[in-house]
Design a protein that fits this description.
9 helices; disordered C terminus
Length: 193
């Protein structure tokens, strides 16, 4: 039975509930009194899980997620050459210092990987990691702030697509089609070496 990784992570770390992104405006419906902590959790949790999702599509990434220890510096791995842009984006979005953002990103990623490892069987394969992360895509992207431009930073523009934030039967069909292509791509990467 699959869990909602984003919701589980948010509850485990004690962050406030996230808001879905409005597909028309591409922003969270909020007012000037929305605390920075809410903005931080909205940006950081979704950015980390989106990057982990993207990272899990590689054999190296899936294997690292499957076998890593808590000492891993995840921000370096999952954001690669765009780490500073991600940190700046989250810092600007949430009015947090860059130093505070990087520390929290690593602890969020460590907790997320721990939850993923708990959900997988003890003898899990890279393919099972990829499959698990594919099931989480539609739980994560409706909450991902477009202002972070994670699709551009992770070189996958489908991540920022408005379709991911829409609800209803047509949007569900579109997400299923994208998901089937993602699954096929993950399987292809398994066999190519």
């Amino acid at each position: 039975m699959s869990i909602n990784l984003l919701e589980t992570l948010q509850i485990q770390l004690g962050y406030p509930a996230l808001q879905k992104i409005d597909p028309n405006t591409q922003v969270v419906k909020e007012n000037d009194e929305t605390p920075d902590e809410h903005r931080f959790s909205q940006a950081a949790l979704t950015a980390v899980l989106t990057a982990l999702y993207n990272y899990s599509h590689t054999d190296i990434g899936a294997e690292k997620i499957r076998t890593s220890s808590s000492a891993t510096t995840w921000a370096d791995l999952i954001f690669t050459d765009n780490q500073q842009s991600v940190i700046k984006g989250i810092s600007d979005y949430a009015n947090y210092t860059k130093e505070n953002v990087i520390t929290k990103l690593n602890s969020i990623a460590t907790a997320a990987v721990s939850i993923i490892q708990e959900q997988l069987p003890a003898d899990a394969t890279m393919h099972q990691v990829k499959k698990f992360m594919n099931t989480q895509r539609n739980n994560i992207l409706p909450f991902l702030p477009a202002e972070l431009q994670m699709g551009e930073l992770l070189h996958d523009n489908t991540l920022d697509d408005r379709t991911n934030k829409m609800e209803g039967p047509v949007s569900s069909i579109m997400r299923a089609i994208v998901g089937s292509f993602s699954n096929g791509e993950a399987e292809k990467k398994d066999t190519v070496l």
